[in-house]
């Protein structure tokens, strides 16, 4: 990844804007040295130590003011990718649950509201991988969609439920841009977006690769999902940052090269959100009751099970997942599992029987929302 500067890329922003942004977005330096080790075993242990130190430091600092995760939609996902190399049940799909995370943090520029993973489910359905599955049903595809991808809520519905207005949203971010269409939120250059004040926080590597996809990536990105999104609404990050008090974005390449994780300091410890793994089970496979995971982990010594549909960087993904679970620490109730709040999480579904999570924490809610 790019390490020439820790400052966000703000070439498209005015100097006043840059100053404003740099007082809210602060670089984190904990991982910079460890990432430079080229030998993977050395990098793994250096990153693990850096993650422990980062965890201690973050726990000694203020918490977010508000944190809420809300169900959006369940979608089918190939088992062979979800539990890379270890599935044994002949059930080709699992169900993963996509959530929206609404977070408010104090910053030196006042309270800021951030949406993590605001998925536009209808637009995302254009992603080639999903489209191929639903198109197979021909005229029955709307029925099939309802069966395989039941929607619990929309982003707009969640905001209404919370009493938030579109103009209240200051930042949006995704752990990576697979399946995402940002035009409804940020505009496409012709039509304004729904969130007039929101900026996208994204790793530079993710933004640039999503705008010039290679053939192995195309299946998982929404065609034109970024087309026309004004560059001044995009903050390209070079590395790890804090967003005000209690929310960190940590570069965790692997699932995609520009993948990042959200770390939120809550009353229940550090909640880590990512799609490198599809739920807490994948971060403690030796304790999992999901068929195949424990056996595979014990046979191989794997500390984590990769979500391997694209494997843009397999070894990096392994190291990133170890970092994620080290930062998260142990869940306060499910003591065998780390405190992960994955953005695409394995969930039980009668339509795809056979796989259910050993640990699932449900929708989370901490603190009181402040309305502007
Ligand atoms: Zn993905």
Automatic annotation (TrEMBL):
Signal sequence segment: none
Keyword Metal-binding (UniProt): yes
SUPFAM superfamilies, per the entry: Metallo-hydrolase/oxidoreductase (SSF56281)
Keywords: Hydrolase, Metal-binding, Zinc
Top-level taxonomic group: Bacteria
Keyword Hydrolase applies: yes
GO molecular function terms noted in the UniProt entry: hydrolase activity; metal ion binding
Cofactors (names): Zn(2+)
Protein family membership: Belongs to the metallo-beta-lactamase superfamily.
Protein name: Metallo-beta-lactamase domain-containing protein
């Amino acid at each position: 990844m790019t390490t020439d500067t820790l400052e966000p890329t703000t070439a498209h922003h005015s100097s006043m804007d840059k100053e404003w942004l740099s007082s809210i977005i602060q670089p984190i330096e904990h991982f910079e040295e460890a990432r430079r080790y080229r030998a993977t075993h050395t990098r793994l242990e250096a990153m693990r130590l850096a993650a422990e130190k980062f965890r201690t430091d973050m726990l000694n600092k203020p918490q977010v003011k508000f944190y809420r995760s809300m169900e959006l939609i369940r979608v089918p996902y190939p088992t062979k990718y979800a539990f890379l190399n270890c599935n044994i049940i002949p059930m080709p799909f699992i169900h993963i649950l996509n959530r929206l995370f609404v977070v408010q943090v104090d910053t030196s520029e006042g309270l800021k509201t951030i949406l993590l993973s605001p998925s536009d489910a209808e637009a995302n359905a254009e992603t080639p991988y999903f489209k191929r599955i639903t198109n197979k049903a021909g005229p029955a595809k709307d029925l099939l969609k309802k069966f395989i991808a039941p929607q619990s809520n929309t982003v707009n519905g969640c905001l209404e439920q919370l009493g938030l207005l579109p103009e209240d949203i200051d930042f949006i971010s995704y752990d990576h841009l697979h399946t995402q269409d940002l035009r409804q939120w940020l505009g496409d250059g012709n039509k304004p977006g729904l969130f007039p004040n929101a900026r996208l926080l994204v790793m530079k590597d993710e933004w640039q690769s999503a705008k010039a996809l290679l053939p192995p990536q195309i299946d998982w990105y929404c065609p034109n999902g970024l087309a026309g999104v004004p560059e001044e609404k995009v903050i390209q990050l070079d590395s790890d940052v804090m967003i005000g008090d209690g929310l960190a974005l940590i570069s965790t390449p692997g699932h995609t090269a520009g993948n990042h994780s959200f770390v939120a300091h809550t009353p229940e410890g550090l909640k880590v959100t990512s799609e490198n793994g599809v739920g807490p089970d994948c971060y403690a496979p030796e304790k999992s009751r999901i068929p195949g995971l424990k056996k595979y982990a014990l046979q191989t010594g794997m500390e984590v099970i990769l979500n391997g549909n694209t494997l843009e960087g397999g070894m990096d993904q392994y190291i990133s997942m170890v970092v994620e679970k080290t930062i998260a620490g142990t869940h306060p109730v499910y003591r065998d599992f780390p405190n992960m709040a994955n953005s695409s999480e394995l969930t039980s579904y009668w339509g795809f029987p056979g796989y259910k999570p050993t640990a699932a924490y449900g929708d989370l809610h901490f603190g009181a929302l402040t309305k502007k």
